[in-house]
Amino acid sequence: MVPEHRTLLGIDVVKSANNPGYHAEEIGSAVTELLTTALSGVGIGNDDVLMREWTGDGVLLTLPGPLLGAAMDSAQLLDMAAYRRNQRRKPEIRLRVAIHVGPVADAPGYHPAKKTLNRMLDATAVKNLFDRCVAGGPDGEVSTVLIVSEHAKTTAFDGDYLRLLRIGEFSPLPVRNKEHDADTWVRVPGMDSRSIADLLIEPGGADTVRRGDAEERAARISVTNVVHGGGNNGVQAGVIHGDVNLGNR
Questions:
Q1: Residue 204 and residue 110: Cα distance in Å, rounded?
Q2: What's the per-residue H, E or C state across 198-215?
Q3: CA–CA separation, 206 vs 107, rounded Å?
Q4: Percent of the chain, pLDDT > 90?
Q5: What distance in Å separates the CA atoms of residue 75 and residue 180, rounded to the nearest whole number?
Q6: Sequence-distant contacts of 14-19: CB under 8 A, at least 24 apart
Q7: What distance, in Å, lies between the first and last C-alpha atoms of the chain?
Q8: Which of 139-153, 178-192, 234-248 shows the lowest per-residue confidence on average (mean pLDDT)?
Q9: Which pTM value belongs to this model?
Q10: What is the DSSP string of the chain?
Q11: Under 8 Å CB-to-CB from 215, ≥6 apart: which residues?
Q12: Cβ neighbour number for residue 241 with a 10 Å cutoff
């Protein structure tokens, strides 16, 4: 019998080994605090967590399948909580976050869906993206990078199950990690899909995104809004003032 499909949420602390011993001891409790804050903010409580598996410097949560949208939205709150923490406390916590959906049995085990999620988290392209984001932005600004499987992304957005994340924030990324070869989507808070695509382009290597492919795929998920209205209409910070008629093309 095929196991029930579950939502998998995995996080991995970036370069945790670089912290001195007196800071490294605090990482586990810091991750727990950040994750609890983010999950509670989207309505996911401890009773919703079917399995919690620590992976050394990270954790893998198995959640009910219907909580996919909330799990993805929690990535935004996780980034906000990590950013605020890093402004005032040591050690700084930067996270790679991965979300996948697949069949997972009730008993703990290294199921194929969990293996897929771990391959996503550990992909060289994702690690390189994080390094470029940190190097290219103000110190401490980038706290998380989110990678989502094609299936999870399609399911969440096609069903309109998200409240905080937007499709235009994601850029396509093929992940090749050992025997794993699949399409995924990445999000860096505060960046649009085209900006991420530029950072993903690298000169050769196992995880390479060709410029033409990156731009073409990013363009496909971009949405142009046409605003029809007169008088004193204005669009600012996502708020539309005045009578408008939005049409996507």
A1: 32
A2: HHHCCCCCCCCCCHHHHH
A3: 35
A4: 46
A5: 24
A6: 14/94, 14/95, 14/96, 14/127, 14/130, 15/94, 16/57, 17/57, 19/91
A7: 44
A8: 234-248
A9: 0.78
A10: -PPPEEEEEEEEETTGGGS-HHHHTTHHHHHHHHHHHHHHHTT--GGG-SEEEE-SSEEEEEEEGGGHHHHHHHHHHHHHHHHHHHHHSSS---EEEEEEEEE--SS-S--HHHHHHHHHHT-HHHHHHHHHHHHHS-TT---EEEEEEHHHHHHHHHTT--SS--GGGEEEEEEEETTEEEEEEEE-TT--HHHHHHHH--SSSSS---HHHHHHHHHHH--PEEEE--SS-EEETTEEESS-EEEE-
A11: 194, 197
A12: 12
Dist. CA 1–CA 101, nearest whole Å:
18
Closest-CA residue to 146 (of 210, 198, 205, 100) = 100
Which residue carries 């997972």 as its tokens?
104
Query: In this structure, which amino acid lies at residue 119?
Result: R
Quote the distance between the C-alpha of residue 246 and its chain's center.
Answer: 28
Q: Which two tokens stand for residue 172?
A: 């396509």
Q: Which amino acid is at 231?
A: G
pLDDT tens per residue across span 40-62? 999 999 999 999 998 878 899 99
Q: Could you check whether the bond before residue 20 is cis, i.e. omega within 30 degrees of 0?
A: no
CA angle 241, 189, 162 (to 5 degrees): 65
7: burial class by Cβ within 10 Å (0-12, 13-18, 19+)? buried
